Amino acid sequence: MSEQEKLANRIKTLCSAKDMSYYTLSYRSAVPMTTLMHIIDCSTQNPGIFTICKLCGGLGITLKEFFDSPEFLEIEVGEE
């Protein structure tokens, strides 16, 4: 699973657990809906840590809580 897919899956899981729509997350985090949807559909290669921090704020969690998931235990490093 790619890092983009891991991020997308984590956002989907957290939204589902909090019964929060993507629109609500976008509004609460001040991340444009198009940006959020590009992360969700994996069409963005690097959403950036600042964007992830804003999404965490919208979800009411810390960055540590966001990445505290088994799927982030192993990080794939791409070839350069």
CATH architecture: Orthogonal Bundle
CATH-defined fold name: 434 Repressor (Amino-terminal Domain)
Count of domain modules: 1
Q: What is the name of the CATH superfamily?
A: lambda repressor-like DNA-binding domains
Given this structure, which CATH class is correct?
Answer: Mainly Alpha
Strand content: under 5%
Which class best fits the helix and strand makeup?
mainly alpha
As a percent range, the share of helical residues equals 55-70%
Q: Compute the CA-based radius of gyration.
A: 12 Å
Instruction: Give the H and E element order.
Output: HHHHH
Shape descriptor reads globular
Describe the structure in your own words.
The protein is mainly alpha-helical and 80 residues long. The radius of gyration is 12 Å and the shape is globular. It has one domain (3-66): Orthogonal Bundle (434 Repressor (Amino-terminal Domain)), CATH 1.10.260. The two termini are 18 Å apart. It has five helices and no strands. InterPro entries: Lambda_DNA-bd_dom_sf. This is XRE family transcriptional regulator.
List keywords for this structure.
mainly alpha; 434 Repressor (Amino-terminal Domain)
Per-chain topology:
Layout: H1 3-17, H2 22-29, H3 33-40, H4 49-59, H5 63-67
Helix pairs in contact: 2-4
Summarize the model shown:
By secondary structure, the chain is an all-alpha fold.
